[in-house]
Design goal:
Blueprint: H1 3-20, H2 54-64, H3 66-69, H4 90-99, H5 111-122
Helix pairs in contact: 2-5, 4-5
Length: 125
């Protein structure tokens, strides 16, 4: 009976670590026709930290980071990122993406994808 909590903790740890790995570059979802009613306002697709497409950045996050940081950046296994831009700038976020930090492995997102994701996260204030 004492082994039961240990087995659950081990299973959760294995799942969390496997969800963060893979080393594959995330691809944004294919363009699909929208089923939503169009808004009268035109949403902005770029933001202050650089020229990036918000939809691409969100897709990168969901495909690469959300398993550990939560679908809404609320934190899960990894820390809460909802206001990470008030703590780290784009270059500092790029360094974390490149080198890793804590349990986060290095190089999960690279190149232009890392630039896009870092700019998007830097705008989270």
């Amino acid at each position: 009976m004492k082994r039961f909590p240990f087995a659950i903790m081990a299973a959760v740890l294995v799942f969390s670590l496997s969800a963060c790995g893979g080393g594959k570059t995330a691809q944004p979802p294919a363009n699909k026709p929208s089923t939503e009613t169009p808004s009268t306002e035109t949403p902005s697709t770029t933001a202050p930290s650089g020229s990036y497409d918000t939809a691409t950045a969100e897709a990168l996050f969901k495909n690469t980071c959300a398993a550990c940081h939560g679908q809404t950046l609320e934190g899960a296994v990894g820390p809460n990122l909802q206001k990470i831009g008030s703590q780290l700038n784009k270059d500092q976020i790029l360094e974390v993406l490149d080198k890793g930090k804590g349990a986060m492995p290095p190089g999960l997102v690279k190149g232009a994808d890392a630039e896009t994701l870092a700019a998007w996260l830097a705008d989270k204030k």
